[in-house]
Automatic annotation (TrEMBL):
Keyword Hydrolase: yes
Composition bias, Basic and acidic residues: 268-279
Keyword field: Coiled coil, Hydrolase, Signal
Name of the featured protein: Septal ring factor EnvC, activator of murein hydrolases AmiA and AmiB
Residue span, M23ase beta-sheet core domain: 368-461
Membrane-spanning segments: none
Region described as Disordered: 268-338
Organism: Noviherbaspirillum suwonense
Molecular function per GO: hydrolase activity
Tagged with keyword Lyase: no
Coiled-coil region: 28-125, 165-206
Biased composition annotated in UniProt, kind: Low complexity: 316-325
Pfam families per UniProt: Peptidase_M23 (PF01551)
Length: 468
């Protein structure tokens, strides 16, 4: 009977604890909101690039370029492939997060079970000991020493019980948060799977559309490739784009320097104002102390001085630094400290056959300003050095084109890509995959057109890259 009463009491206590600690955690899925925020940040930069590209096209007389008919389809193929690339990376990261959460849940569950067992034993021991009420003990008339000892024991038991209950509640709340986070991550995986399905369907449609267009335009594309004037116009277009991008980069750099100088000036002015206010308060406090000393010497009662009146807590020298506006964290270094120092150490952006070299004859047209490297469709194109993407869009003559700024007015240029896997504004490291090879822009062969420029002028990449 006693055992049954104890069991019921323990079960009731644990049930009450469970009810108190099992408040459902609010489920919030951040993935869509974060994607929207990222797109909003890119909107302003993309607007500038679109205006720049439009201005370049408006200066040209040739408007009926055969490759232009491929622009929309090739850009859509690039977007779909980039989306699939991003989704695959996101899927891998989210799956890893689910795995970590499940391991944490197993550990938390073991801890909760152990805490329940310890609390159950404590309740049983307390019951077996008689569970005497403190008031009954005080009124029992027993030996005062025994009463004091028993009261201390009850105190220890109560403290241990309260601590166990608090730990149990905290761990049960952690279990619920973990379950909510796990479910949220699984929901994100489902979203990713649906997006992947849609993007794959879109990619197949756009590939089919482009194949049809290429078949229809094959004769015009062939004639266009042989026209010397078209090649020259393409080079002028790219040169104009690089010059305009260089101006944008310089304007942005100056704006950032001006903003940083302004921030420093404001911080210095605020610090001077705080120091002056502190000095005035210290003078006022010193004057009050002198007045108190004079009053004491004359036998007058010293007026009550509120320490807060003597010196503002916010201006206390021990806290003035903490209250100062924190400086923004330094931007991560994305540019090589000295790009020229990398000469001869850069890796080829893609593995393939070198089909055209810098300065080589190009039929009746101008000589090659870069390299053409034959590579299978979809081959990985890698950044030759760290930097920031400043252009990633379709451009007449070069198809899906991506340009990376390396600082010091050095740029690397990657054209005729099937897909662009980075967006304008993205920071890249040496060896990062930024695109996949293709034959966009009306090119006959699959591969990569690669240029390097300094101060807008093309130079021979072979003097900088190594085949190792």
């Amino acid at each position: 009977m006693i055992r049954e009463r104890w069991r019921r009491g323990a079960v009731l206590a644990l049930a009450l604890l469970l009810a108190a600690g099992a408040a459902p955690a609010a489920k919030v899925t951040e993935r869509t909101r974060q994607k929207q925020a990222a797109e909003a940040e890119r909107a302003a930069l993309q607007q500038k690039l679109t205006a720049l590209k439009r201005a370049i096209n408006q200066t040209e007389s040739a408007k009926d370029d055969a490759a232009d008919a491929l622009a929309e389809s090739e850009a859509a193929i690039s977007d779909a492939n980039r989306a699939l690339y991003d989704l695959a990376r996101e899927q891998k990261e989210t799956a890893a997060r689910v795995g970590r959460l499940q391991k944490e849940l197993a550990q938390l569950t073991r801890e909760v079970d152990a805490q329940k067992e310890r609390l159950s034993r404590l309740l049983r021991q307390q019951y077996v000991a008689g569970n005497e009420d403190r008031l009954k003990l005080l009124l029992s008339g027993d030996n005062p020493n025994r009463i004091n000892r028993d009261l201390q024991y009850f105190g220890y038991v109560s403290q241990a019980q309260a601590k166990l209950i608090e730990m149990l509640r905290a761990d049960m709340a952690a279990v619920e948060r973990n379950r909510a986070d796990t479910q949220d991550a699984k929901d994100e995986l489902d979203e990713i799977a649906l997006e992947q399905r849609d993007q794959k369907a879109l990619l197949e449609r756009e590939k089919s559309k482009r194949a049809t267009l290429v078949a229809q335009l094959s004769s015009r594309l062939g004639a266009q490739r042989k026209e010397a004037g078209a090649v020259e116009r393409d080079e002028q277009r790219l040169g104009g784009l690089v010059d305009q991008l260089a101006k944008m980069i310089e304007e942005q750099r100056r704006a950032e320097i001006a903003a940083e100088n302004r921030r420093r000036e404001l911080a210095a002015a605020a610090e001077r104002a705080r120091a002056e206010k502190l000095r005035q308060q210290q003078l006022a406090r010193k004057k009050q102390q002198e007045q108190q000393a004079q009053n004491a010497a004359k036998g007058r009662p010293a007026p009550r001085v509120d320490p807060a009146d003597a010196i503002d807590a916010d201006e206390n020298p021990n806290t003035a630094t903490a209250k100062a506006e924190p400086a923004p964290p330094p931007k991560p270094a994305i540019f090589p400290s000295s790009f020229p120092a990398l000469r001869g150490q850069l890796q080829m952006p893609v593995h393939g056959e070198l089909a055209a070299r810098f300065g080589a004859n190009r039929g009746d047209g101008p000589s090659w300003k870069g390299l053409f490297i034959r590579a299978p469709e979809g081959a990985e194109i890698k950044a030759v050095a760290g930097g920031r993407v400043v252009f990633a869009e379709w451009l007449r003559g070069f198809g899906n084109l991506i340009i990376v700024d390396h600082g010091g007015q050095y740029m690397s240029i990657y054209g005729n890509n099937q897909s662009l896997l980075k967006r304008p504004g993205d920071a890249v490291k040496s060896g990062d995959v930024i695109a996949s090879a293709g034959n966009s822009g009306g090119n006959e062969q699959s591969g990569l057109y690669f240029e390097m420029r300094h101060q807008g002028r093309a130079f021979d990449p072979l003097g900088w890259v190594t085949s190792r």
